[in-house]
Beta-carotene 15,15'-monooxygenase
Amino acid sequence: MDLLSKGKPSFNIKITVINVYYILCSIFGVNLIFLGGTWLSKSGILANASFSTQFIVVQFNLLEENVTASWYSSMLYFITGIIAFFCYLIDSQKAKNWSDKSLNAFWLVVASIFFLLSFDEMGTFHEVIGAASFMKKLGEGDNTGWFVFHTSSTVVGVLLSIFIFLKFKQYPFLLAINLLAVLLLLSSPLQEQFELNLWRSSLNQETWKRPLILIIIEKGTETFASFFFLYTFVMYLKKKTKIMYMGKAMLSMDFTFIKYFPIYLIALLIALGVLMLLTFYFPWNVSGRSYFGLPQNWFPAIVSIYCSFISLYFEISFKKKLGFLRSIYLVLAVLSILSSAYFGSNLYYYRATQLDQIRLLILGANLVLGIILIIEFNGSTIKKFLSAWLIIFIISLLFPPGFYTTFLAYIAYACLLIALYLHFQRLLYLRDNYE
């Protein structure tokens, strides 16, 4: 059966309002846990603790790069960008005139902003933009890069505030929370600059330490700014899509894939792969760049976590009568999230330690699951993409740690994403076999 010739598939997302609040409360709680981990890691209480204890605690330190905390912050921005994209799709369905369509298109800009913030959170580009060689070519010293950064941040903040006012003016509470989030987000580089000035004015710069309270305020500002955006965007969707179904308040969203969506999907994945290569080979040439985030970790992290979202959607929306495949979807979702955290937290670098057991566990679990998926999923094209995912992913885990470990992992999960889309089409065509 030619899956690409069946027209434009559609899908529906339904989730109860109470579950939405549960998810938001859980994210709020996780934010507090990471802030607590940041305080615990920087307070010095565990200075004499074992290496394993300190390593676990540092994973919750929002100040550190290439740890679970930085991965979580990046994914929070990424999810916010996805929600902003859903807002665009919902508003586009109801736009009736040119002005509404033009305003709604800015949702795409908002989504792009959060995707870039997600990328920057894991790659830490803005911290080194002043020292980047290509920025220095535009002017003398570090000032040109920082001028470009602060100017662009201000312009983005102003445009974002105008858009938020126009979109949320009929919802005063959400408008206030959104504008607060903008102010918090824009204050972050100012706080960094304030701390830099404190360091420069200190009597002994070599022994100077950042005040713990300023660290907590700065990281709390960034973390809860992204949460506030996520909260207001979700509440906006609630107001636009809320229905009553079987006595329960639910968010119900119906979407139709655009024509030639598979081609656009493959083109996007190729473009991201090229961007990944450019990011690695582009001459940032910043002294000490290795002490900052590794941007290549972002690419396998976002694709694998996106695969987990799709798997969860399958788990909720398609209930096979025998129930076997449904359990596979949940396992695939969990393993995809773990893979995202594994690469996003840079854990693949720890080969000569006991942490290498994590790699072996992920490898074994995905090997077993991959074989089951290849056997259970129908369609030769789907099986080929699943086989490519499994083989390339295993190679990436066996590959020496470095850039090409992440590049292979990205290619692997890109193959899985395509396989899941084709499988989704097949699920739609075989809907009669599902309850």
Observations:
- The two ends are 23 Å apart (CA to CA).
- DSSP finds 14 helices and three strands in the chain.
- The first strand starts at residue 10 and ends at 16.
